[in-house]
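FAQ

Q: What does a record look like?
A: Structure on top, sequence underneath. For example:
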């Protein structure tokens, strides 16, 4: 029961931090002209960017609360303090990379690789832990030193970039993230990994609060600082909880988007929709990403329905991960 109360405290405090701080942050972002155009709406209204800073504040703040509870009530709350501190450091480094990218627009080739540096705290922690992964229908496979020096950095870099690519529509990033981390929280509790559950609960609470302001019509965007952090947090949670295969299932919609964009040489423009009669259509009829693929299949779709389609797809992946991985763990 102590662990459940700890997870609940993290989720609630993360939600509260974001919900309270975000209106203030939105005003400050507008005052600092940190805005972007909502390209999927008529008139392309200005919207606050870099709202993901509030997500980072909620996650780090709630985990600091957990550390305080651990410090003063260590007999009740037990978890790996080193593991959680490593996770927090990785997320802070990713947030710094995302902030720099939002401010100065980092080259795509650099942004694809540099998140690997953020994995160093996790590499240090994992060097003294398990190097095995649970693979459905196969079992546990020990990758040895390659898990530490290659798979962990790649996991952080790939996950953060995937969630940064499938973005740009009101409620999509936060909505899919809510489903993703709800599934991760459930799996972490099944697995018995308190640390993975803590990270998942912190992200779930933060994204639930953020979604209130990011849902159509959005008052704030996540920015790269938020999008990169979502993927990095998923990687951190699956590494700490030894849930890598479940994480691979949860990113399937993002992987499909990656392949479509790779076939189009990763376009930096015209990934959005053309607004006609309240519906979005692919620009020039081309399909440059998963979102435009859905637009074409619907023959025009509202932004809300487009977002709900991707949230539903993520929910299917979450259900598969819980059913498949939960059975293996059981």
């Amino acid at each position: 029961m102590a662990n459940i109360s700890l997870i609940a405290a993290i989720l609630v405090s993360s939600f509260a931090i974001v919900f309270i701080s975000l209106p203030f942050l939105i005003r400050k972002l507008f005052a600092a002209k940190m805005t972007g155009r909502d390209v999927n709406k008529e008139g392309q209204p200005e919207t606050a960017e870099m709202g993901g800073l509030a997500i980072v504040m909620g996650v780090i703040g709630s985990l600091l609360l957990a550390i305080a509870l651990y410090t003063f009530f260590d007999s009740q709350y037990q978890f790996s303090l080193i593991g959680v501190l490593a996770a927090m450091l990785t997320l802070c480094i990713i947030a710094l990379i995302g902030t720099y990218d939002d401010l100065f627009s980092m080259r795509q080739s650099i942004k694809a690789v540099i998140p690997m540096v953020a994995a160093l705290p996790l590499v240090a922690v994992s060097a003294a832990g398990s190097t095995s992964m649970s693979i459905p229908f196969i079992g546990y496979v020990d990758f040895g030193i390659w898990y530490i020096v290659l798979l962990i950095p790649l996991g952080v870099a790939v996950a953060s970039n995937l969630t940064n690519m499938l973005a740009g529509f009101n409620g999509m990033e936060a909505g899919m993230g809510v489903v993703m981390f709800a599934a991760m929280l459930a799996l972490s509790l099944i697995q018995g990994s308190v640390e993975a559950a803590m990270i998942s609960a912190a992200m779930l609470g933060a994204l639930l609060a953020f979604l209130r302001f990011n849902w159509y019509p959005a008052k704030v965007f996540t920015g790269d600082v938020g999008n990169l952090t979502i993927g990095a947090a998923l990687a951190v949670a699956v590494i700490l909880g030894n849930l890598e295969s479940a994480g691979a299932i949860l990113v399937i919609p993002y992987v499909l988007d990656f392949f479509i964009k790779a076939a189009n040489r990763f376009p930096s423009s015209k990934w959005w929709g053309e607004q006609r009669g309240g519906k979005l259509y692919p620009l020039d009829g081309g399909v440059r990403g998963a979102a435009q693929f859905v637009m074409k299949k619907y023959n025009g779709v509202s932004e809300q329905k487009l977002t709900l389609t991707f949230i539903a797809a993520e929910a299917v992946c979450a259900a598969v991960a819980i059913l498949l991985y939960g059975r293996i763990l059981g």
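Q: Is there anything notable about this one?
A: DSSP finds 14 helices and six strands in the chain.
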